[in-house]
Design brief:
Structural class of chain B: mainly alpha
Shape of chain A: globular
CATH superfamily of the largest domain in chain A: P-loop containing nucleotide triphosphate hydrolases
Distance between the termini of chain A: 48 Å
Helix content of chain B: over 70%
Order of helices and strands of chain B: HHHHHEHEEHHHHEHHH
Shape of chain B: globular
Oligomer: heterodimer
Number of domains of chain A: 3
Number of strands of chain B: 4
Radius of gyration of chain B: 22 Å
Strand content of chain A: 15-25%
Number of helices of chain B: 13
Largest interface: A-B, 64 and 40 residues
Largest sheet of chain B: 2 strands, antiparallel
Distance between the termini of chain B: 32 Å
Strand order of the largest sheet of chain A: 6-9-10-3-11-12
CATH topology of the largest domain in chain A: Rossmann fold
Amino acid sequence: MHDLAVREPGHASDAPVTHGVSLAMEGISKRFGGAVALEDASVRLRPGTVLGLCGANGAGKSTLVRILAGVEQADSGRILLDGREVRIDSPRAATALGLSFVHQELNLVPKFTGVQNLALGHSASRLGLVDERRVRARAAEVADMLGHPLVLDVPVDRLPVAERWMLSLARGLMRPAKVVALDEPTASFTEEEAERLYAVIEQLTGNGVGLLYISHRLEEVLRVTDDICVLRNGRLVGTFESDTLDVHTLTRHIAGREVESIESQGPTHPPGERVRLAVRGLSRAPLVNGIDLDLHEGEVLGIAGLVGSGRTELARLLIGADAATSGTVVLDGEPYAVRSPHEAIRRGICLVPEERRSQGLVLSDSIEDNLQMAELGAARRGAALFRPRSARRVSRSLIKRFGVKARSSRDPVHSLSGGNQQKVVLGKYVRTEPRVLILDEPTVGVDVGARADIYRIIGDLAASGCSVLVISSDFDELAICHRVVVVRAGTVVASVERTAATKNRLTELCFTPIDEQETS
Amino acid sequence: MTATTIQPALVQQPRSAQLWLLLGRYGALMMLAALVLVMSALKPDTFATGNNVVNILNQSALSAVIAMGLTFTLVTGEFDLSIGNTASLAGVVACTVIVRHDLSIPVAILSGILVGILIGLLNGFVVTVLGVNALVATLGVGTLAVGVNYAIAGGTPVSLSDPDGFLEISLGRFLGIPYPVYIMAGLALLAWVVLNRTVLGRSMQAAGGNATAAELSGIRVDRVRVVGFVICGALAGLTGVLLATRTGSAAVSAGDTYLLAAFAAAFFGSAVLRDGQFHIIGTVIGVITVAVGFNAIALLGMETYWQYFFQGLVLIIGVGVGTVARRRAAK
């Protein structure tokens, strides 16, 4: 293991790469109110290489990036570009220095086309008028640099997420960029799209651009990066050469303890005999086309599928957020046809939605207010009295049971890390004691430790008789399920027992055209 | 399972951040306190008297009732520009019911409130079922209300021939305090309970905080919003009727000025004690702050146009200080 963090400043200039710049952040400390976000953290990006930033949620990765982007100012420490100290006191200053950032929430204007988006903030304007020809010319250069064609003439809200992401990256490169930070780039990419991204990354580094790569997908980080900085609780654990690490070691560095592998977190109880939820021919054109599935009592059933396969739409049909055009559902032997999430929750079916910040939480409200929300939703009468004391008691016991790390149940939920926020969303629904709990991408952006907690919670729920549907793009994660069904083009194309549900097998089933595979 | 991440070390918050936090929450209240202190010093004989306090509260009552109603729609994440027109129409309807149909005062009051409820339902229908933006919807519905108003009254004030019983509602006193003050206090208590201690009220707050999350939590967001519009309309209707009881007659546009006053009070109130959320206590304090200011302007013998300066400044400073302070405190 090689600890780059203790190298002396300026050392990187001896590196063999002749073009590109080095970036160093030294002794960075930052406090928010009472909490320490970063304490004397130092990272160094060698020219033309990829540096991974790893750490649990709340470890300080985002803060470090925000300081680099000029969104936050460090309390102490300095930033060096090519050995020269620079001051980054605003996002403008960061851009002027050739630093570019692609965040999870893409800052594109949805109704604008690709080229209109690229023109925003680009210098190719005269007297306030956009010179589209010059924007297109520059876009072509950028596309060359990325080795990836850009879709310029379609409103971006009609593009797949991966293409939108590429446009967002391209927008950052419209001005010459020396360092690009990528935050959770592949969170909603298919495997194939991720491969394309890896190719783009190679192109970029070949052009001398340095990359900061932030992701919870450790295999991916190991594959893409040259060096990896691990942060824990705002402190640098160390900087390692990626070749010297494997997932297990890296996980240990991040968590600071041994984390059980997912396989060992599989279900402990066999599912019950009774069918809890029987779905037959459920359809809503164009994305859901005749889904059949049986979910047993106490079963954890995985749903594997690519983005756009109809898996999220299936979940929305089951909770009445959308109306099915045909098909039947039977819940515990009774017909189940709900027209709203309110009815679904009253019947005992809830969905932990994909986007916790926009769909799961009222960010400005307290943890306990958020935990109380689904119970309000399940209430029959609005005039019913709300008892804050007993509600708070229940909230506190949930916070404890789920291991939510918070100072007080009255803290605003936005002050929590992603993993803890996810536990709050989960807790909100578990509190209504559902018969069927549907989880859509339960651990996106959730750190390793909190992820283990969430798997444990799912296991406990199943053991107590609740049936769980887990929708996930992360096929490794589906090892926590008893059984996995593969959804493709809106129908179930395969049902695989846990032992057979390897990542390769599931990926294969997701991509193979229906007529070539055996349907079970 | 709690050892995955260590709790970040807690250190004392910087002093400046604490001060800004205090200023953000209590700045608006301090403004009111300063106003009261200065006036008490300047005019101890006329301002700081029991009579004048009752007077100020009495003058706050109608604005408070309509502003509390507005607070409900604001809490659900919508707003209502029709309240002024609703109040005007309700006053005209209440007086017309007595003058032309010779019905009793309670029926007149109820008919005014009913007008508000119907307008609220219409607002709710247009906003939730048709999906029209609240700005356009309530402006349109408010304009319809003006049309109905003119159709009924023909543009002239509707006056009662024997207004004594009607006037008693505004002028009557119990234990030396006018009835409208009791109405304001009673409704404030009721509104607070509904918003904070019932499933409906909490659902309204959740719907206003994040409609998607609320919907997926099973809250019937559309229904909750319609109820918000109905409460808002009902209280606007009541305000219109109470306004008519002051003079025993209803002018066709008597209630219109309450629109801006109510918005100013509710927004000022969102900066009181909370971080920019609408709430009943804040709204009431907003109304009272404006009333104290108007009272002060009158007692100091200043021209009435100062009232506009004062109301505008209260809104800008009250909300502005809160916003700036919160931003500073977050740093």
